[in-house]
Design brief:
single chain, binds protoporphyrin IX containing FE, mainly alpha
Length: 201
C-alpha cells in the first residue's frame, strides 16, 4: 500500500508531462520534481526505524523496503531524464558535468551509493549476504542521504532553507541511530530481535 502511495507522485508527474502541466520549463520541472521525491522518500525510509522505536508502532517497518526501493526509482528516473531529455545523451558533456560540477558529482555519487542498496533489497539478497554483511552494506543509506542533501544544497541559488531542513532531519536521524537514549535503546534491542523485516536503514 505504501509502495503504491509513493508511486502516486510519479503518475502525477507523468500526467502533467502528458497534458502540458509542467510549466514554462518542462524539462527542468521533470528533473526537479523527480529529484525532490527521490530525496524526500529517502528521508522517509531513514525515519522509519527511529519513529518506530520512539512510538513503538512496529508495523511501520513494513513500509521501509517498498518506500526505499521507490525512492531509488525516482532517483533513477531523475538521472535518466537528465541524461536522455536534458542532455540528449551527449556523453562527453555528461561526463564533464559529473567531473567538473560539484553538485552533479554529489548527485552521481548518491546514485552510485543507492544502487547496491536497491539491488540487495530482496529477502533473497539478505539470505545470500547474511544479516551482518547486509546491515553493514545498508548503512550506506546515511552517506547517500547526506550527499543527496549536499547535492540539493549546492544547486539551490537563492533559498537554502529547504536543503538545510533536510540536512537537519538526516543528521538528527543519524544521531538517533548512533547514540540512542537508554530507554529507546532498550526498546530497540527487544524489538529488533523480533523484527521480521529484513531491511535496516
Ligand atoms: C547522476 C545523478 C544526478 C544528476 C546528474 C542530477 C542532476 C540534477 C539536476 C541537473 C538538477 C536540477 C538543477 C537545477 O534546477 O538547477 C537536480 C535537482 C535535484 N536533485 Fe539531482 N541529480 C542526480 C542525482 C540525484 C539523487 C540521487 C538525488 C536524491 C536522492 C537527487 C536529488 C535532487 C534534488 C532534491 C534536486 C532539487 C529539486 C528541487 O529543486 O526541488 N539528485 N539534480
Amino acid at each position: 500500500m505504501a509502495g503504491v502511495l509513493a508511486l502516486v507522485p510519479l503518475a502525477n508527474i507523468g500526467w502533467d508531462a502528458a497534458t502540458g502541466g509542467l510549466g514554462v520549463e518542462p524539462v527542468e520541472a521533470l528533473v526537479r520534481r523527480t529529484g525532490w521525491w527521490a530525496l524526500t522518500l529517502l528521508v522517509v525510509t531513514l525515519a522509519v526505524t527511529p519513529v518506530r522505536r520512539v512510538t513503538g508502532w512496529n508495523r511501520l517497518i513494513q513500509i521501509r523496503r517498498p518506500v526505499g526501493v521507490i525512492s531509488f526509482v525516482y532517483a533513477l528516473s531523475h538521472f535518466v531524464i537528465y541524461v536522455a531529455i536534458k542532455q540528449w545523451f551527449a556523453l562527453s558533456f555528461i561526463i564533464e558535468d559529473i567531473l567538473e560540477r560539484p553538485f552533479i558529482t554529489a548527485g552521481f555519487i548518491t546514485l552510485c551509493l543507492l544502487t547496491p542498496l536497491a539491488a540487495t533489497s530482496t529477502r533473497k539478497s539478505i539470505r545470500r549476504l547474511g544479516g551482518k554483511k547486509w546491515r553493514r552494506l545498508h548503512w550506506l543509506i546515511y552517506p547517500a542521504a547526506l550527499l543527496g542533501v549536499l547535492h540539493y544544497f549546492w544547486l539551490v541559488k537563492a533559498d537554502t532553507r529547504p536543503p538545510l531542513v533536510y540536512a537537519a532531519i538526516v543528521i538528527a536521524l543519524l544521531m538517533m541511530r548512533l547514540d540512542l537514549p537508554a530507554p529507546f535503546a532498550r526498546k530497540a534491542a527487544r524489538s529488533d530481535s523480533a523484527e521480521p523485516a529484513p531491511s535496516r536503514s
